[in-house]
Design a protein that fits this description.
By secondary structure, the chain is α/β, with parallel strands linked by helices. It contains nine helices and nine strands. 38% of the residues lie in helices and 20% in strands. The longest helix has 17 residues.
């Protein structure tokens, strides 16, 4: 009996979320739901649950580099997605690894976190700007991350273009500014500096949205690994995430996760279903 052909392969370089709603765990669930083979490079271990993060431990750069080389040199990748990269050293090592890999990269700049020493955060931020964003095929900052990276504060939909232009200055091929924190519909703006796509989705009245950013970036990487052009990969990913938010469920005492398996549970084709 012959073996089945391997599905497209996607590598996530991110932190672990012990609660299973975000980080590496969200990435791998998304990849399974969208029909690709997910692989992982752990950058940090967190103790976290529905009410917050109780602790975070960064992995050494050599451990991150060894995991990456191990996977890429043997198995190969069709897309890479990055998440939590807490230090400047880690950001720079991962940027270097990605620049030597012939595959699209989706950068979710959560390394712009408030973890630890403010000076470290500031230096990591600068590394994201100068090293990581230039190797991104698609960068997916939310409004807080845009403000940290560029100083542009988005108050309304009209500010999204200005924010996207400011992020593009750092060199990603495309930027998706996530406007989820604005009032009204959930509007995201995708642009490469010439094409502009506004992606709208109804806002679901569901507070259980833990893992939304990780899930969206992973879903985009899945589309790119399947050979979709960036606008199609982003639109398909947005549809998948909108369904996952609508189906988010309560877990623990705080904010529960989105439901990564919503499309599978409804017996619908991967991520293509109408919104529930």
């Amino acid at each position: 009996m012959s073996a089945s052909a391997a599905p497209p392969r996607v590598l996530t370089v991110a932190g672990s979320d012990s609660g299973g709603g975000a980080g590496i765990q969200a990435d791998l669930k998304t990849m399974l739901a969208l029909g690709v083979h997910g692989m992982s490079v752990l950058t940090a271990v967190t103790a976290q649950n529905s009410v917050g993060v109780q602790g975070a431990w960064e992995l050494p750069v050599e451990a991150v580099r060894a995991q990456y080389r191990s996977v890429v040199d043997d198995i190969g990748v069709q897309a890479v997605k990055t998440g939590m990269l807490a230090s400047a050293e880690l950001v720079e090592a991962v940027a270097e690894l990605i620049s030597g890999t012939d595959a699209p990269a989706v950068v979710d700049p959560v390394g712009v976190s408030k973890h630890g020493d403010p000076l470290l955060a500031a230096s990591a931020l600068d590394s994201v700007r100068t090293k990581l964003l230039p190797v991104a095929t698609v960068a997916t900052p939310n409004l807080d991350e845009v403000a940290q990276l560029t100083g542009v504060r988005v108050q309304s939909e009209d500010d999204l273009r200005r924010a996207a232009a400011a992020v593009l200055e750092f060199g990603p091929r495309w930027v998706l500014v996530k406007g989820g924190h604005l009032a009204g519909d959930a509007v995201d703006l995708l642009t490469d500096g010439s094409e502009v796509h506004l992606l709208r989705a109804p806002r679901h009245d569901n507070r259980h949205t833990h893992g939304t950013g990780c899930t969206l970036a992973s879903a985009i990487a899945c589309g790119l690994a399947k050979g979709q052009p960036v606008p199609e990969a982003v639109a398909t990913a947005k549809e998948y995430v909108t369904g996952a938010i609508a189906a988010g469920f309560a877990l623990g005492a705080g904010i529960g996760p989105v439901d990564h398996g919503w499309a599978l549970e409804r017996g619908t084709p991967e991520g293509q279903a109408a919104h529930p």
